[in-house]
Amino acid sequence: MSIYQGKVLLIVNVASKCGFTETNYTQLTELYRKYKDQDFEILAFPCNQFLYQEPGTSQEAHEFACERFKAEYPVFQKVRVNGQNAAPIYKFLKASKPTFLGSRIKWNFTKFLVGKDGLVIDRYGTMVTPLSIEKDIKKALEDA
């Protein structure tokens, strides 16, 4: 992850068969195209923990994002975001920004905004669309 040092990151657990897929992927691609030349990166992590809504392989999840939504940002291997076998990055993110209901990720498309200093700025639930946090992304890009 050191290749992302000094960048603002939006880290998202994604799924291809979710009711929130269309809006989130479309807006993530829009944000990426707008800010990719300003030390901004989106890191997408496919996850099948929520009603098995990412049933395919990691490669299929990557192809889905890149072909259907023209994603140019990294789509990583499938991960677990909750439980004992959660990916280390998600253990860190959740510990940094728990919600009033605890640290568990509740659903697909939970987003974490990470500043250039590597600290988690904020956590956004599924219902928060990527474009609605654009002002926070701009502020994070200006800070440093």
UniProtKB/TrEMBL annotation:
Known Gene3D superfamilies for this protein? Glutaredoxin
Q: Which residues form the signal peptide?
A: none
One biological-process term from Gene Ontology? response to oxidative stress
Q: Report whether Cell membrane shows up as a keyword of the record.
A: no
Keywords, ordered alphabetically:
Oxidoreductase, Peroxidase
Q: Name one Pfam family in it.
A: GSHPx
Q: Name one GO molecular function term.
A: peroxidase activity
Classification via CDD domains: GSH_Peroxidase
Indicate the residues that form the catalytic site. 18
InterPro entries per the UniProt record, alphabetical: Glutathione_peroxidase, GPX_AS, GPX_CS, Thioredoxin-like_sf
Keyword Oxidoreductase assigned to the entry: answer is: yes
The family classification in the record reads: Belongs to the glutathione peroxidase family.
Query: What protein does this entry describe?
Result: Glutathione peroxidase
**Organism in which the protein naturally occurs:** Arabidopsis thaliana
Underlying gene:
GPX4
